[in-house]
Specification:
The protein has five helices and nine strands, in the order βββαββαββββααα. By secondary structure, it is of the alpha+beta class. It has a single domain, classed as Protein Transport Mog1p, Chain A (3-Layer(aba) Sandwich). Strands 1, 2, 3, 4, 5, 6, 7, 8 and 9 form a nine-stranded antiparallel sheet that branches. A hairpin with a 5-residue loop joins β6 and β7.
């Protein structure tokens, strides 16, 4: 019997060549990111002018590609609800919304972004959380930029889920509610953050709320949100 094809099969890792960070970068991202050689970005057939970066820690790895886009191709800056609807219509069983937000950067340009989580699975059944995808548009003066980032788990995994589950159970106990862990996992752990009636796919869980980022700063979701915050606060 032939082996069944995996859904969202994990891509082969590439070896990158790096250069010193260019002081003429059109926007600021954290110094903790290493810049990929622009010549290699061209070889990878990225859009013209693309800048590529990577980041790595004990618990996360990430790759980010940034480039300017025509304003008409940007996501809806002022209608994040449309973006939520689009994601609900297009995500597959191995994906789920974490957050969709908009606002203004420090220097006044608008921004909008979404974070979804993804898992490599078989036959549309998620197997494990592997990472988070960031798609992010922001304005600087008359220019619109796009950041696409993918942040994966590395090293020991599952700590954030375990601690989050314990904290959620404790909060239910303090509120005088039943806190059976099995019941929580079955009925009160996974939920779409924008529509409680949306049950398709690999839904956000209660350990993925922003309040836990400070406890797990090297978790890939924390790293993703940290990048967004830095860009918004420094551009």
């Amino acid at each position: 019997m032939s082996k069944r094809k995996r859904q969202n099969e994990e891509p082969e890792r590439k070896t990158f060549h790096y250069v010193d960070r260019d002081v003429s970068e059109p926007f600021m991202i954290p110094d903790s990111y290493s810049q990929i050689d622009p010549a290699q970005m061209q070889e990878l057939q990225m859009p013209e002018g693309s800048l590529g970066y990577t980041i790595a820690s004990d618990n996360a790895t990430g790759i980010v590609v940034c480039f300017e886009v025509p304003p008409e191709t940007a996501m809806p800056f002022d209608n994040p609800e449309d973006l939520v609807h689009y994601l609900h219509e297009t995500m597959n069983e191995n994906q789920g919304i974490i957050e969709v937000r908009n606002g203004k950067c420090k220097n006044g340009g608008r921004y909008v972004y979404y974070i979804i989580k993804y898992s490599y699975g078989e036959d549309d059944i998620p197997s494990r959380v592997c990472g988070y995808q960031l798609n992010f548009n922001f304005e600087i003066d008359d220019h619109v930029y796009f950041i696409s980032g993918s942040f994966d788990e590395a090293g020991m995994t599952g700590q954030r889920d375990s601690i989050g589950l314990m904290l959620h159970a404790k909060s239910k106990e303090q509120a005088g509610q039943a806190a059976d862990l099995t019941d929580i996992m079955e009925h009160d752990w996974f939920c779409d953050p924008y529509d409680p009636d949306y049950t398709k796919g690999f839904l956000m869980n209660r350990s993925e709320v922003p309040e836990l980022d400070s406890m797990f700063p090297e978790h890939p979701l924390s790293v993703t949100r940290s990048l967004v915050s830095f860009v918004v606060e420094n551009n």
